[in-house]
Amino acid sequence: MATIAYQAKTKTYRVQIITPDHKRVGKSGFHTKTAAKTWLTENQLKIVTGQSEVNSSHQLLSDYFKHWYETYKTNVTDITLHQYAVTEIIIRRYLPRARLNNFTREQFQKFLNDYGQDHARETVAKRKTHISACLKDAYEDKIINEDITQRLTLTGRAGKSSELKFLEYGDFKSLEQYSYDHLNNDSQLAIFIAIHTGMRIGEVKALTIKDVDFVHSKIKISKSMDGNGHIKVPKTSASNRVIKIDNRLLDVFKRFKGVSDLLVQVSNEAVNHVLKKDLKHIGAKDVTFHALRHSHASYLLSKGVSIQYVSERLGHSSIAITEKVYAHMLQTLRENEEDKVTDLMNFQ
After folding, report:
1. Which residues in 313-326 are b (16+ Cβ under 10 Å) and which e?
2. 292 partner at 20 to 30 Å CA-CA among 12, 16, 216, 286?
3. DSSP letters along 282-303, please?
């Protein structure tokens, strides 16, 4: 049995053939249905009779991975699909000759070791998850005879320490004032918005003046811009949110009431470059733009704002994520609360 399906996300066609022994073999990436039909006509008989080099088990691991995510990951967001494409590029770079039928657990571990030498542990974990899911499906589809994804050791460098991910209150306040005094370019505006809202860089770049409710002092966050400049829907439903904003930010937005296009038109590299200069000017430590989001949340938590509200304001899919990211801050707050309790109970 053979099928030809159109994949809306990639705007290509894929061919899938189920062999007599119930294996799924196919190919993706056809730009026209005619091209897909031609390939099917030329290869179907060979595949079914086991005479074709296209047999999935003999494919390059990178080719099968591409076929896999284009076949099984059609219901994910464009941002997530992009991450699978990145993993494909990494497989081609680190495992250019690896074939699905003889890719071993030892080779998988060696890849993790090599990739982990100059990448953060969190990044390595993402690639491991993608490749493991692909191999598990290949095993379930009887394309390979063994599940080699078990008992692998995750490697990678430690991420930045928690204190590097956000600015202390004094520096945070100084940066806010400095950006306010220099709102003469899009990068400074992006920095100012992030300080006051905790929005992600993609969310800031997708913001328009129509998203600002001047009557109720709120911002509607319903879209994001990816690295290629495409406006996308949020990755999770929680990211689609409306947040309250302060009068200072609202007054800044009033300056842009006549702007019909995006409020900020700048690359990630450009805004981080400006941020680096700003931080140097005020004598603060060097952090990335994303640290402004952490700084915003950490500041609110330090002032007693509930973690439930902070989680909603940031657009986290669950409060557990907020607790994990800001564990350092929550522990400090807990210690402060313990001191308050002991003081209150000291009746003498």
Report:
1. bbbbeeeeebeebb
2. 216
3. HTPPP--THHHHHHHHHHHHHT
Under a CB-based contact definition with an 8 Å cutoff, are residues 32 and 51 in contact? Answer: no
CB atoms inside a 10 Å sphere around CB 287: 21
**pTM of the prediction?**
0.61
One digit per residue, pLDDT tens: the chain, 348 residues? 678 888 776 778 878 777 666 666 667 777 888 888 887 777 766 655 555 544 556 789 999 999 899 888 878 777 788 889 999 999 999 999 999 988 999 999 999 999 999 888 889 999 999 999 999 999 888 888 899 999 999 998 876 555 557 888 899 999 999 999 999 899 999 999 999 999 999 999 999 999 999 999 999 999 999 877 888 887 678 889 999 999 999 999 999 988 888 999 999 999 999 999 999 999 999 999 999 999 999 889 888 889 999 999 999 888 888 887 777 666 666 677 777 777 778 876
Coil/strand/helix, residue 218: strand
d(CA 114, CA 9): 32
Residue 215 identity (one-letter amino acid): V
Residue ranges, comma separated, of all CATH 1.10.443.10 domains in the chain are 163-340
In the chain, % helix, strand, coil (3-state, to 5) comes to 55, 10, 35
CA distances from 12 to 3, 36, 63, 71, 315 (A): 14, 9, 15, 11, 33
